């Protein structure tokens, strides 16, 4: 059946890298029998916002709902106040479509230089499963100025007293707070996805990230849910890691990791570190997944305005995100071919963009991968 793909090129380098991603998907369409796709482009992003004042209208959400998946370039523009496009489009889509997992493979390809001494492709090959709808992203927060801070102070004081038996002094002139929300159901579904991924990928170990030693209410629940869910998977080895420690271990012993599951905010941070140990943001893809709904695939990098329009950005992250999208749509052969093509082109080492030490253009990399997809 023809796959219906919504394409949101977005801002900055988004349109250039998406163009190459689509080129590669078209090559797969020509060479894998039974696979076909139809694309429809949507204009959401900074230009559209500046012209119309619209982020993603209701009608746009309805049309996106009819698609099999969304292929997104990047969002963010220096002309727009920080947070507007990120929250109004990217987070809006993640939440609206309840894409509760953000799956980020951390894989070092051959011939890609890794900043860690003595580590190669055999050492860096794991997945981060980032819970994608809760935690500090749940938009629970507020600011209060003098005269309106009493209630927050009251709660803060009573918690300090109960926990530490201390009276605290907080200046009540101006306060801001942000609450991290973990729900049992929300944690459960992300953690179950991670255990299933361990099985599907024939891995052995699942590491759960938290900070239950300090933020013990929210991440205590996360930990409890992890323990409960793990009982359903007796053959999978499990462990906990505090988030500060895991940043250290990603650098020291990345080969230890197979699948890592993490609350949203820590996942955001540790996957940027993960991207660096796999050779940079230019090659790190991700998928915002709702296994029963419309999922959205994107490079994990941003819109990189200073590289926009120069045909120099690395399209590999977006190309790999396209492969992940087709895997989620059960087009295994297409997904395998795309990954294989990226692998081979990098291994040959002739075509690569500046970030990987080469001087090829965005479109030359796209051409080389597309050609390889046809050849395989
Ligand atoms: C990411 C990004 C987003 C996030 C921002 C742009 C909202 O950093 O996809 O990792 O924090 O999730
Ligand atoms: Mn991020």
UniProtKB/TrEMBL annotation:
Its cofactor is Mn(2+); Mg(2+). Gene3D superfamilies: Isopropylmalate Dehydrogenase. Keywords: Manganese, Metal-binding, NAD, Oxidoreductase. It is an enzyme of class 1 (oxidoreductase). InterPro entries: ICDH/IPMDH, IsoCit/isopropylmalate_DH_CS, IsoPropMal-DH-like_dom. Pfam families: Iso_dh. GO terms for molecular function: 3-isopropylmalate dehydrogenase activity; magnesium ion binding; NAD binding. The keyword Lyase does not apply. SUPFAM superfamilies: Isocitrate/Isopropylmalate dehydrogenase-like (SSF53659). Its EC number is 1.1.1.85. It comes from the Archaea. Residues 4-369 form the Isopropylmalate dehydrogenase-like domain. PANTHER family: D-MALATE DEHYDROGENASE [DECARBOXYLATING]. This is 3-isopropylmalate dehydrogenase.
